[in-house]
C-alpha cells in the first residue's frame, strides 16, 4: 500500500508536522501488518515530505518502507540516486518517472538519471517491483507510453 501525503497547512509546514506525519505512518503500518500488507511512503511534491530536509526528518521519525518516485524526488531537490543509496534497505518498490522543463515526461526524455537509478539498484540485487508512470504529461498519452516502453526495453530484467 503506497501512501503519499502530509498536506501542507495553509500557513505552511510547522515545526513538528513531520513527526505527526511519521506517527500517522506508524499507525498505518500497524494496520497493514495486521492484514499482511506492506505500507510504503511516496515522497511527493506539495506535501510535508517534499524537500530533502523534510524527507530525511520524516524517515528519522518513522521506519516505514519507501516507494521512491524519482521525478518527484528530483523536482523537490533530492538527487534520486543519493536518496536510493541512503534508503535502499527500505525500498518496497520503485516508481520510475521522468521530468523535463515542462513537467513530467516520457521516460528517457527528461533530466532524471533513470539509467543510473536502474543500474545502481540492479547492482545491489534489487528484484522488487517497478511502477512506471507518465502522469501530467501534456503530450499524447499513447506516444508517451511508446517512448517509455522503448526506453525500458531490456533494462529491468
Quick structural summary:
The chain has 157 residues and is an alpha/beta fold. It has 6 helices and 7 strands, in the order βαβαβααβββαβα.
What would you note in describing this structure?
It is built from 6 helices and 7 strands; from the N terminus they run E-H-E-H-E-H-H-E-E-E-H-E-H. The strands form 3 sheets. The protein has a 3-stranded parallel sheet, with no helix packed on it. A two-stranded parallel sheet has the order 4-7. The chain has helices at 17-34, 52-61, 70-75, 80-87, 114-123, 141-152; strands spanning 2-3, 40-41, 65-66, 93-96, 98-100, 103-105, 129-132. It is 41% helix and 13% strand. The two termini are 24 Å apart. Helix 1 packs across helix 2 (52-61) and helix 4 (80-87) packs parallel to helix 5 (114-123). By secondary structure, the chain is an alpha/beta fold.
The assigned structural class equals alpha/beta
- Total of helices: 6
- Strand order, biggest sheet? 1-2-3
Radius of gyration, taken over Cα atoms and rounded to an integer in Å: 16 Å
**How far is it from the N-terminal to the C-terminal residue, by CA?**
24 Å
Q: How do the SSEs run, as a string of H and E?
A: EHEHEHHEEEHEH
- Specify the helix fraction band: 40-55%
Residues in β-strands, percent? 5-15%
Net shape: globular
Note poorly predicted spans: none
What would the average pLDDT be, to the nearest integer?
93
Largest sheet: 3 strands, parallel
β-strand number: 7
Amino acid at each position: 500500500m503506497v501512501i503519499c501525503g502530509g498536506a501542507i497547512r495553509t500557513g505552511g509546514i510547522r515545526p513538528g508536522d513531520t513527526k505527526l506525519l511519521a506517527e500517522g505512518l506508524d499507525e498505518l503500518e500497524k494496520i497493514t501488518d495486521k492484514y499482511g500488507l506492506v505500507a510504503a511512503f511516496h515522497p511527493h511534491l506539495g506535501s510535508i515530505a517534499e524537500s530533502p530536509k523534510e524527507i530525511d526528518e520524516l524517515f528519522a521519525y518513522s521506519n516505514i518502507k519507501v516507494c521512491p518516485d524519482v521525478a518527484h524526488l528530483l523536482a523537490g531537490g533530492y538527487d534520486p540516486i543519493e536518496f536510493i543509496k541512503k534508503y535502499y534497505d527500505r525500498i518496497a518498490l520503485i516508481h520510475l518517472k521522468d521530468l523535463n522543463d515542462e513537467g513530467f515526461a516520457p521516460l528517457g526524455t527528461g533530466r532524471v538519471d533513470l539509467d543510473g537509478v536502474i543500474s545502481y539498484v540492479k547492482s545491489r540485487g534489487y528484484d522488487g517491483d517497478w511502477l512506471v508512470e507518465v502522469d501530467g504529461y501534456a503530450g499524447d498519452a499513447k506516444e508517451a507510453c511508446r517512448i517509455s516502453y522503448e526506453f525500458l526495453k531490456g533494462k529491468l530484467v
